[in-house]
Amino acid sequence: MQLEANSSPRSMEISEEDELVTIHGGKLNSLKSLQHLLKAEYVPSLLFGDIPSKG
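Request: output the structure for the sequence above.
Response:
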């Protein structure tokens, strides 16, 4: 990601006012890889599960 002069990356903080959307579901290990890719592009993300993880 290239930034123009005098610009800064997007905030990585997610607030209560932000709208959350599910973009991908899957096993925790693959989701962690996706989260690292999003972070590299300054896109904040959350991982969560509906049921307890078994691995």
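The two ends are 33 Å apart (CA to CA).
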